[in-house]
Amino acid sequence: MTSHAPSPVPSPARVLLADDHALVRRGVRLILDSEPDLRVVAEAGDGAEAVRAAREQEIDLAVLDIAMPRLTGLQAARELAAVAPRTRMLMLTMYDNEQYLFQALKAGASGYVLKSVADRDLVAACRSAIRGEPFLYPGAVTALIRNYLERASRGEETPDSLLTAREEEVLKLVAEGHSSKEIAALLVISAKTVQRHRANLLAKLGLRDRLELTRYAIRAGLIEP
Q: Any idea where the Response regulatory domain is (predicted)?
C-alpha cells in the first residue's frame, strides 16, 4: 500500500508593518501573527524605513499607516509600486477621508482599513490583498460609487466612455476578424477611415496589435470569448 506524502503547507505571507506609533504596531502585529497564514517579518517607523525594508527583503504585503514622518504612507506606496511592484499594499488609517481613499487607490493600494475597526477588518483585508483582490470598508464603497455618479452627471470621462461610439463599432468588428475593407463596407466609411480608427484605438488603449485589441474587446464585453 503506497503512502501519500502530506501536501506541503503553504508558507505564511511575509508582512511589512509601517506605523510611527510603536503601540499601534504592537497591537497590529498581535492580530496578524496570531493567524497561521500571515507573519510580520519587518517593522518600520516611517515611510522611508518601509521602502528600505522592502528593498532589503522579499515582502508579500506592506501595511502602511497614512500619516507618518519623512515619507507618508501614500508617498511610500508610490515608491514601493516602483521598487517592489509585486508587493501588495494596504493603507491603515484613522482617517475616514474620501481624498485619502482615492489617493491610496491611485498609489496602488489594494485596500483601505480604518484603525478603529482593524481588529474586525484587517485580517480579511490582508487576505484579500494577497489574493490580488480589493478590500474596502462599506463607507469607502459608498464614496467610490458617489464619486463615479457625480463625475458621470458632470459628463466627465469615465472608463467606459474612453472610446467613441464609432471606435467601439470598429473595435468590435476588428475583434470579430473582419478586414478593413469589410469593416468599411459594413459601416459605410472608407477603408482609410477604418485604418485611422484602428491606429487611434491602438494609441488610445496603449496596445500593439490585433490580438491585443481582441483581448481588450473581450474584457470590455464587446464580444464573447
A: 14-130
